[in-house]
Amino acid sequence: MSDEVIPYFRRMQMIKLGLLPPEAVAKTKKPLKKVSDKRAKEDADKKALGGDGDKIKLALEIWFKNIQLEHFGVHGGMCMECGEWIPLNYARHATAHLLPKNLFKSVATHPLNYLILGAGCGCHQKTDRVDKFVTMKVWPEAAQRIKEMIPLLPFDELKYLSGQLMTALENT
Question: Of 69, 137, 158, 167, which sits 20 to 30 A from 37 (CA to CA)?
Fold first, then answer.
């Protein structure tokens, strides 16, 4: 019986019934990586941008504070799409990046890379998809800002610009 090939499920059944001796399969244990591939890439990106992520976080904090001072003042501001009141406490949540900061790191804190869109009124969520974004009243302003930022993008970030976005920008 050892000369013929037995299907896996049949062989396992025969081992359970005691008709075949269990095979000693030597499994080699691979050690776990200390740092995952994704984390190693993120660390390399942070190092390439000039050190640790604390500088990047600080730059973003300053960027958000400047926008808050410019558009919200002391009391609050208005949604650029629907005009709904946005309390000062939600200023950061209402600041919508036009080009996502996690993909377009070079323009994450660019002065044109935002719109004030309320999270409570739902305008901020409409910017996630290009087909919804182009139907908004603020699209012409957003398109103009994106067109001004595209030449500033390094070559490796251009791959993140979707064809749908580029078509929408051409049609505007």
Answer: 158
Q: Is residue 50 part of a domain?
A: yes
Give the domain range for residue 110.
Answer: 42-170
Domain assignment of residue 139, yes or no: yes
Whether the full predicted model's pTM is greater than 0.70, yes or no, is: no
Number of domains the chain contains:
1
Say which residues have a Cβ less than 8 Å from residue 101's Cβ, sequence separation at least 6.
Answer: 60, 108, 109, 113
CB contact at 8 A, 96 and 117: yes
- Convert the pLDDT of each residue in 64-113 to its tens digit: 999 998 888 778 888 998 889 998 888 888 999 999 988 898 898 999 99
Encode pLDDT of 14-34 as tens digits.
888 888 777 654 457 788 888
The answer to the question of residue 105 being in a domain is yes
Position 24 in a domain: no
How far apart (Å, rounded) are the C-alpha atoms in residues 62 and 75?
A: 19
